[in-house]
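User: Please predict structures.

Assistant: First:
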Amino acid sequence: MARLRRTTISRRTVEALTAEKDTVFWDSELLGFGVRVYPTGRKVYVVQTRAGGRNGKRVTVGRHGVISAEEARRRAALIVARIKAGEAPVPEPMAVTEAKGPTVADLAELYLKEVVAVRLKESSARSYRYAIDRHILPRLGGRPALALDHAAVSAFHHSLARTPSAANRAVEMLSRIYRAAEERELVPEGSNPCRQIAKNRQRRHERFLTDAEFRRLGRALDEAQAGGGAFMYAALAIRLLLLTGCRKSEILTLRWEHVDLEAREMRLPDTKTGPRTVQLSPAAAAVLAGMPRADGNPHVIPGALNGNAMTGLQRHWVKIRERAGLEKMRLHDCRHSFASRALALGEGLPMIGRLLGHSQVQTTARYAHLARESVHEAARRVSDRIEAGLYRDCPGPATAEG
C-alpha cells in the first residue's frame, strides 16, 4: 500500500511543493484535508469524504492562488463538520470560485493601461491594441482568467490558422498579458496557459534590391520628383530611406530642427529604440540640402494639411514601385537593402546594428546569413585569384651559375 504523503499545509509549504505526477499531499493536522499537486504546477485544495461508500469521494475546495491556504483550511473544516453531521459537504465549486476572479478582458485592460500605454511607442502600441481587440477579446475576453488552460489556448491558436503570423502574435500577446498579471499578483505564479504552444512556421518577407533593380527604382524616383507636389516629396522620402536605412516613421516624423547639414547628422529625439543620431552620407545630405521647404511646416516631408507630416506615402510608393517593375517590394525593404549593401561592402553586424539604430544584437542577427554570403563571396574571389596564379605560365626558378 502506497504511503500517504503528509505535510502541514500552509502558504509556504504549498508553494514549495512539486510533483512529477498528480500527487495529493495530506495535511498532518486536519484529517481528510489535502492539496493535489499537478506536474504543470497547478495546485488544488481537496477534502476526502467517507460519504457514499468505503473510499468516499474527493471534494474540491478551491485552487491555490485563488484562495489562500488558510481559507482552504477553514472551508475544509466546515466540510468535514458537515460530513460528520450527516449533511452534504456543499463546498463552493471551483469553477464558481475561479469565475469570481478577473476575466481575460480584465487582464488585457490592465496590460494596455499599465504596460502598453506607459512603455511602448505609439506605433508599437497600435499593433498591440489591434491584436488584443481583433483576436483576443472577441474569442477569450469573457473567460475567467484562471479557467483558461493550455488546451483552450491551443484551440484559440488553431482557430487563427489561416493567418499563421497573426496567430503567433496573438498567443505571444496573451502570454505577455498573463506575465504582467502574475507580476502584479492578480493571478498566481504559473497561471500562464500559453507555455509550450507550438508556433506556426513563418516565412520571412525579406527583399534585397539587385544592382539592376536599384537602377530601375532610381529612374522611377527621378520621374516622380519631376512631377512636383506630394509625389515629389514622396520620392525624396524614399531616397532618404534608401540612403540612410532609417525606419519609415523616422523619416516621416523628421523635422528641420533635427537636421544639422553642417555636421551631416540627423538627431532624432524619439525613435522606436529611443533618441539616436543618424550620420548622413554626402548623398543623403545632398538630398536634404536640395529639398524645398514647405512654408509654415516644420516637417521635412510635409503633408497636405498645414503643419502636418505626410500620411499617404504608401499610396505614392505603390505607383513608384509599379513604374520600376518592383510590385512585390515593400517600403521596409529599403531598410533591408541598405543593410545588405553594407554587409556586401564588408561591414560587420555590430556596425550594421549601429547604422540601423538597433538596440539589441538579436535584431541585427537576422542579417547573419547575408554576412556569411559576403564572406563566401570574398573567399571565392581570393581563391580564384590564387588559383589563377598557381596555374599561370611562368619561368622556373633562377639557378646560380658556376
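Second:
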Amino acid sequence: MSFLYLILVPITLVLLTYMFLEGRMNRLIPLELKISGLPDPFDGKTIFFISDIHRRLISEQWLDSFEQKADYIVIGGDLTERGVSFSRVRENVKRLTERGPVFFVWGNHDWDAGPDQVARILEEFQVTILNNSTHVLEENNSFLNLSGVNDSTRHYDDLAKTLASRRLFAPTILLSHNPDIQKKLNRSMDIDYVISGHTHSGQINVFGYTLKEKAGVKRHGFGTLIISSGYGTTKLPLRLGAKPDALMLRLTKK
C-alpha cells in the first residue's frame, strides 16, 4: 500500500499541475470564413471571438502579441460567473474595448452572475449587446449582418426576432453562446456561419471522451458551425485534452 501511495501521489500532483497549466494557456486560432457574396469592403476584415472567460483575467501581453488587429471584437457569452468580482469583469471589458468595437451575446453564467450589473459595465464601455437582435455592420455603403441570440440554455433565445431585423441580401453571421441553437436552424434561414462557445470542448476529457460537444468547425445542412473551446474554466480551474482558445476570424470572398 505504501509503495502504491508513493507512486500515485506524485503522478496525481503532476497531472493536476499540468491540468492547471493547460487551463491557463493563451491560444489564438486563426480561421478563414469564406462567404458567398461578401461585399468588397468586408473582404479581409477580422473578428476576434472570445467566449467563456469566466474567472480569468485576459492577458494584455497576449492581446498585444496578435499580428493583426481585429476590426471587430465579439464576447461570445459567459463573460463572468457567480462569485467573480465585478472589478475583474470591468477590467476584462476595458481591455477588449481598448482594442476595437465590441459586441456581446449573453451566456448562461452571465445571468447567474447578475445581469443588471453586467449590462451596466457593458454600457459604460459602449459595448453593443446583441439581445435577440441584429447589428448591421456598414463599410463604404456595404453591409454585413451580425446577429446575436440570447442564451438558449435558459430558453431566452428568440431566433425569429433576431433574424427579422437583418438587412436583406447582406451576408449573416449568427452568434449564439450555446451551439445547441443548431437544432433550430435550417438552410432557408440563409445564415453563412454560426459562432458559439459554451462547451469548453469538454474541459476535462478522459481518454478523449466527453459528454460535451468538442470545439471545431462543423458542417451542417444549415451551414457551418464553429465552436470555440473558450478562454476560461468553470467550477474547477483545470482542463485536460481541451486547451482554451479564442478565434481570429478572417472574412474572405468565396
